[in-house]
From TrEMBL:
Presence of the UniProt keyword Transmembrane in the record: yes
TM spans (from-to): 164-189, 210-229, 235-258, 279-302, 308-331
Organism lineage string: Archaea, Methanobacteriati, Methanobacteriota, Stenosarchaea group, Halobacteria
Keyword Transmembrane helix appears in the UniProt entry: yes
Keywords: Membrane, Transmembrane, Transmembrane helix
UniProt region (Disordered), positions on chain: 1-41, 105-141
Protein name: DUF4013 domain-containing protein
Record's compositionally biased regions (Basic and acidic residues): 1-12
Comp. bias intervals (Low complexity): 24-34
Highest taxon of the lineage: Archaea
């Protein structure tokens, strides 16, 4: 089970179960004296019991939600449409509002022109309302997400200058996301063990591995682009493989912290847990189930105008914090209960 440092303030021995069973007897969430990994509800209960220790780290999902300016503008625009989505999300280090809810489609008046857009009125066959595609009147576009916003760029207009800009945007995103993830996951792990968050130490120790991880993830996405250009149906056919890969390796970025695993070793450990530990599967399914329900509720709220957006943000930030912290708690529990996997 998860070793905890005793806290003299509450008189606990660090191994007590979540509150609710004063006798310390086994509960539905798991027996605290059992060496096997505890369940998803047990870890959620453990995290919520220590919410005061990790609450300052809620700034991370709050900032990542608000820094996606384009999404925020669309959610605040009363003329935007309605977007209801269902997200089957495995654990991820940087959950936020936009993990669970897509922003509503923009109103016509707020559609942002992109590189390659034709001037208004230059296309006699264009919709008179001005509602063209994301990249103008023709061509294939690729959305490029930056830490602040997304930009749609048609492939046929990408030259050396645009390619350099895209590369810089990707590197900036990787650097910022990696430092945030290292500080966030490392801080959660330390605070759950009642240690100081040690932001600088977490960034310096874990960020390089998160950089490699994010570069590999982006590279894998870029490998799918040629197939999308041939036929979008090929991407749909690849979805089962994407789900399997997501399941097998959802633990990788967390293992950089909880197991202090080197880059390649984290993939080996995650794969071993995925194929050999039922608790790993159960936790992943619980997480997906919570994400599905949450995404429906949050996407409805985001589509309800400014008031709905603020309510969605107020719900999504603590939800993201608790889910990520529960994943950190679970994987440390799993690593500690399966020492042979780390050898």
């Amino acid at each position: 089970m998860v070793p905890d440092t005793p806290d003299p303030r509450d008189g606990s021995d660090g191994d007590s179960p979540p509150p609710g069973d004063p006798g310390g007897a086994p509960t539905a969430a798991g027996n605290p004296d059992d060496s096997s990994p505890h369940s998803f509800p047990w870890h959620v209960s453990r995290v919520t019991d220590r919410i005061d220790a990790i609450l300052p780290l809620a700034l991370v999902p709050l900032l990542t939600s608000l820094l996606q300016v384009g999404n925020v503008q669309r959610a605040l625009d009363p003329g935007s449409g309605v977007s209801i989505n269902v997200e089957f999300a495995f654990p991820s280090p940087l959950l936020d509002l936009w993990t669970f809810a897509d922003p509503p489609p923009p109103s016509v008046s707020r559609r942002r022109p992109t590189v390659g857009d034709s001037p208004p009125g230059s296309d006699p066959f264009a919709d008179p309302t001005g509602s063209t595609g994301a990249t103008g009147t023709g061509g294939t576009g690729v959305p490029i997400e930056t830490p602040l916003d997304g930009v749609g760029i048609p492939l046929e207009s990408v030259g050396a200058a645009a390619g350099a800009w895209i590369l810089l945007a990707i590197l900036a995103y990787v650097a910022i996301a990696s430092v945030l993830a290292a500080v966030y996951v490392g801080g959660l792990d330390r605070r759950l063990r009642r240690d100081p968050a040690a932001i600088v130490a977490c960034a310096s120790e874990y960020a390089p591995r998160f950089v490699l991880y994010n570069l590999v993830a982006i590279g894998a996405i870029l490998l799918l682009v040629p197939f999308a250009l041939v036929s979008p149906a090929l991407i749909i056919l690849a979805l089962p493989a994407v789900v399997v890969v997501g399941y097998l390796f959802y633990a990788v970025p967390f293992l950089f912290v909880v197991a202090d695993a080197p880059f390649v070793e984290a993939f080996r450990l995650s794969y071993g847990f995925a194929v050999g530990e039922r608790a790993y599967l159960a936790f992943g399914l619980w997480h997906v189930g919570v994400a599905v329900v949450s995404s429906i509720v949050l996407s409805l709220l985001v589509s309800a105008g400014p008031g709905g957006f603020l309510l969605a943000l107020a719900l999504a930030v603590p939800l993201s914090l608790v889910l990520t912290a529960a994943t950190v708690s679970f994987l440390r529990d799993l690593v500690d209960s399966a020492p042979s996997a780390a050898q």
